[in-house]
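User: Here's a chain of 139 residues. Predict its fold as tokens.
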Amino acid sequence: MRSENIAGCELLKKEESVDDVLVVYCAKHPAHKFTTVVGWYKHATVFRHYQEAVFAPEDIQYYNAIANSSDCVLLPAGIRSRKVQWEVPRKSNGWAYGFGRANVWYASEEDSRLQDYLARLEKQINEYDGENWIEKYAE
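Assistant: Prediction complete.
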């Protein structure tokens, strides 16, 4: 992860981790084929290199972001299907900004529409008080 590409972290090229980052997870909707927000971590620590969590000799999981479960949301499938509310831009779909070919997007393009989009998305995230599947699928 190139953490120096995260807004506000430009001077952290040599740091192994960055704290207090909003990480938004996205995926292509299986039925409707648009990219959608599926969840987020608030106040996350993002690592430059994958970290390893060993639960058993044959149960190893790798991660590059971690947060308290109280700061994590997994949107229910019905909520994330709301294109107008949770769609994430893709350049291949004609947007001037958004995901390109890579599966990581730092949202750093110079475009005033991007700033409007990010402000709206952050407001939605901060005001979200609906169902959280993190609690439903905790185990």
